[in-house]
Amino acid sequence: DTTNALDALSQEGLSEEPVQQEKETMGSGGGGTREVVATEKKKKQRRRKVVRKGGDEEEDEDEDEIGGGCERQREHPFIVTEPGEVARGKKNGLDYLFHLYEQCRDFLIRVQNIAKERGEKCPTKVTNQVFRYAKKVGASYINKPKMRHYVHCYALHCLDEDASNALRRAFKERGENVGAWRQACYKPLVTMAARQGWDIDGIFNTHPRLAIWYVPTKLRQLCHAERSNAAASSSAPGAGGAIIAHSF
Amino acid sequence: DTTNALDALSQEGLSEEPVQQEKETMGSGGGGTREVVATEKKKKQRRRKVVRKGGDEEEDEDEDEIGGGCERQREHPFIVTEPGEVARGKKNGLDYLFHLYEQCRDFLIRVQNIAKERGEKCPTKVTNQVFRYAKKVGASYINKPKMRHYVHCYALHCLDEDASNALRRAFKERGENVGAWRQACYKPLVTMAARQGWDIDGIFNTHPRLAIWYVPTKLRQLCHAERSNAAASSSAPGAGGAIIAHSF
DNA sequence: AGAAGGACCAGTGGTCCGTA
DNA sequence: AGAAGGACCAGTGGTCCGTA
């Protein structure tokens, strides 16, 4: 439906970075491990196999060549754009971002139809299987970390397009970066949840285009924190049920 | 509600077997691996750490002692019983089996309430988390392989109690074992699915006590096979839409 | 033989952090 | 600095098969 029209929103061409090659470092004991301070509970360990272009191999000197076999491409970064505005330069706009969510929905529907056809388990959410399918059919610009990262921004766009549009205009005008805009998308969603009995899962599941997305952990945590906050305020003497948003 | 009344259905005492102790065999290469012929696709490898009672240790000679610290207990096996009938001897009846499903439902509800309290993700199905909870609160007789094994039997009990009861009486009379009864539970479910557009997921999800259980893979496959079968028959010249159950 | 369940494994949800 | 995404990891769904 809107799929092809919006494809034009993506800038042609992609950012480039050198392809990495993996070298096995299995069984090398504790070397290369790194302590990570976990924000909660346990600490984790993470081992990474990271190697630059092999020093022994012949390699192309020209980093600017286009279509070279040795370049890994990544999408242009997002910038805050107004509704309808196409990003200039090596950037992508927010209409394009939201369009990616619609594409994932389309891929999910196809995966569901295949599963029904085969009599297999049918996913109700955008799962790893859907991301794999997207890759398989050539939509390599769709990946899980990116989609999960901006889910709540898409949620606001779905649930209150006017508020979403107003936020985009305000943040563009102030010259804020994408990260700041993304952070700001949480607050109106928490306010909506407050009005609906703090049922953020219910809010997602009631909306046909949003129901296929997992509620982001951080949004869930913010809602929970605010609910506790509101409950404490309303039970405090003289607070009279007012909602005070200390955590923002 | 019915929980305590039905607890009496379980035979007191449990079957006994020696406790096993694990010995680490990490890093011992390919020793102990065993080829398994997979029924589909790939072959799998499975490594098991299995050790009998340590030969060096002092051990109790008396295998019959009750409450000995070195006995692992497992539930009595099920036998086919009529509705309302309590199994005699070291056996459990089918009312007790179905009661375990109700207990799991109760545990799920408690896990859900805890999750909601904490603002965490709330399971809608009986998941590993629920089985862990059951173990934690002392219901060690509940475990995942057992519950998954008999889900479709419980489904029939939920969806058509009369048919389920009739099947139990018939199989008891014929002196069939639990395995045979369990196999026979598939057919009436497939017939029900045929009547409802082959939507076995819909059938499960519509029933309040069944909706919390995953549809068993085998039941799903049987429904799919029968649907294909029925479609082929009805499109064959002169078959006139009759459903012919070749696969049973 | 028939059956209960510990323990395994492929693929999941979630996101960190090496990368540019 | 701000951002995209490969790749990791703890815990899942599913059930095999060593056990008695």
TrEMBL record, chains A, B:
Residues 56-66 have a biased composition (Acidic residues). Coiled coil: none annotated. GO terms for biological process: regulation of DNA-templated transcription. One of its GO terms (molecular function) is DNA binding. Residues 67-231 form the Floricaula/leafy DNA-binding C-terminal domain. Keywords: Activator, Developmental protein, DNA-binding, Nucleus, Transcription, Transcription regulation. It comes from the Eukaryota. GO terms for cellular component: nucleus. Residues 41-52 have a biased composition (Basic residues). Residues 10-75 are annotated as: Disordered. Signal peptide: none annotated. It is found in: Nucleus. Probable transcription factor. Belongs to the FLO/LFY family. This is Floricaula/leafy-like transcription factor. It comes from Akebia trifoliata.
